[in-house]
Design brief:
With about 425 residues, the chain is of the alpha+beta class. The protein has 2 domains: about 15-330, Bira Bifunctional Protein, Domain 2 (BirA Bifunctional Protein, domain 2); about 340-430, 3-Layer(aba) Sandwich (Rossmann fold). Helix content is about 40%, strand content about 20%. It contains 17 helices and 17 strands. Strands 1-5-6-12-11-10-7-9-8 form a 9-stranded mixed beta sheet, sandwiched between helices. Strand 16 (about 405-410) and strand 17 form a beta hairpin. The chain is elongated and about 95 Å long. The two termini are about 50 Å apart.
Length: about 425
């Protein structure tokens, strides 16, 4: 019989990994709470037409696409934004703006599996819908920085740009939108020479391709100075100038907030999704060439799905990528310290009493595992120690006769006899 393994690109999370993932997820929920984002839950499976409307050719080619039993084209979600936009265009269309919405879960793309890149992965997603003000863009940058700090990532940095700079140039030069999208896909992959070659085939003026070549090498951490350099270069393109001014407003607000974000402005920065209309950004750490989060402004997506014109900005963070970053930099993410207890009867006849003790602990909010293998005491304590259990609560006949149990601190190798009605209080006060 062949050995069963996970589908390629999928993986199992063992208990410690699952705990770490849920802990990072908990940090994402905490950030959502701090910034006033309300959680929603959307389907994993959505209509293909919805997901493909503005996803971009790269994402569309990597969707898990299939027909349901009714013959409809559906797909596993490759990102959250389309689902949230659908909800805002329909069910939430009459809700007062702005809407701050948060969701978290698994995402599916048929990428080539490699380090930090799987076909099933986990994201937290924040969408701020209803405001076209730069304060909204600044907020999304700040909450992303807050999550990286709360998770414990070190040396994370933001790459930021404005898609309107490049779109403004290409639109004024009347480059077809499909070619624009293809150019953005190439620039997203840093294939700048190929992007310029594609533009040259489109017979646009040489001054335009020359300008693009100058822009793609402009980057720096003195963000306002870099923005001014970009503005000088694109001064003949009105929409591009407006885009740079908008980016400067966002950068200025972040600076005024006192939030110390490590920012690099890149003039040639593009992202693969076609719905972006404004500020865009990604989060990276040294030594790992994948984004830990990314997002930006998209002002026309809700309208595309039949809703009212609704400006919006959002971001998604890779939760399992954050885990990888923590492991790489030897800074394991730690969940809040939780006391765990194994309840061990000294003989089989005391199993019922041990069940009662375990239940009393759980009712007091203390996780308690009952020893149900009927191991000898020494072996049961060894197992508890191996599992890094905090305390063993030993249910013995003599102590029960006195209304008490023995509580052993497994790390300190110390123990006390404690009355049953006081054991929860004792465990909460001791480490």
């Amino acid at each position: 019989m062949s050995e069963f393994k996970p589908v390629r690109g999928m993986r199992d999370f063992l208990p410690e990994q699952a705990e770490m993932l849920r802990s990072v997820e908990g940090k994402a929920r905490r950030v959502a709470e701090l910034y006033g984002y309300k959680e929603i839950v959307t389907p994993v499976v959505e209509p293909y037409d919805l997901l493909s409307a503005k996803a971009g050719e790269e994402v569309k080619s990597r969707m898990f696409l299939f027909k349901d039993l009714g013959g409809r084209d559906v797909a596993l979600r490759p990102e959250f934004t389309a689902s949230v936009a659908r909800l805002v265009a329909t069910t939430l269309r009459n809700e007062p703006k702005p809407l701050r919405l948060f969701c978290v879960g698994s995402i599916y793309r048929y990428d080539e599996p490699q380090r930090g890149r799987y076909r099933e992965f986990w994201q937290s997603n924040y969408e701020l819908m209803g405001s076209n003000r730069p304060e909204a863009d600044a907020e999304v940058l700040m909450l992303s920085d807050a999550l990286m700090h709360q998770a414990g990532l070190k040396k994370h940095a933001f790459k930021i740009g404005h898609i309107g700079v490049l779109r403004g140039i290409l639109s004024q030069e009347r480059v077809d939108e499909k070619i624009q999208n293809a150019v953005m896909q190439l620039m997203d992959k840093k294939q700048y020479d190929d992007a310029v070659a594609l533009l040259e085939k489109s017979e646009i003026p040489r001054r335009c391709t020359s300008l693009i070549q100058k822009l793609v090498v402009i980057r720096g951490t003195s963000v306002l100075e870099v923005a001014d350099r970009i503005k000088t270069l694109v001064e003949d393109y009105e929409q591009s100038v407006e885009a740079v001014e908008n980016l400067k407003e966002v950068l200025g607000l972040v600076s005024e907030s006192g939030c110390k974000i490590d920012l690099t402005v890149e003039a040639g920065f593009a992202r693969g999704l076609e719905y972006y209309t404004g500020m865009i950004f990604e989060i990276n750490i040294p030594d790992l060439d994948i984004a830990f989060g990314g997002g930006g402004r998209y002002n026309r997506l809700i309208e595309l799905y039949g809703g009212e014109p609704t400006p919006a900005v959002g971001v998604a963070h890779g939760l399992d990528r954050i885990m990888l970053g923590l492991e790489m930099h030897k800074t394991p993410e730690r969940s809040e310290e939780r006391k765990t207890v194994m309840v061990i009867p000294t003989k089989d006849e005391l199993s019922g009493q041990a069940l009662r003790v375990a239940q009393l602990l759980r009712m007091a909010g203390i996780p308690a595992e009952l020893e149900i293998m009927r191991r000898r005491m020494v072996k049961a304590l060894e197992v508890a120690d191996k599992r890094k259990t905090t305390f063993a609560v030993i249910v013995g006949e003599k102590e029960l006769g006195e209304g008490a149990v023995v509580i052993r601190n497994l790390s300190r190798r110390e123990q006390d006899t404690i009355r049953i009605e006081r054991m929860a209080e004792y465990l909460k006060c001791h480490t």
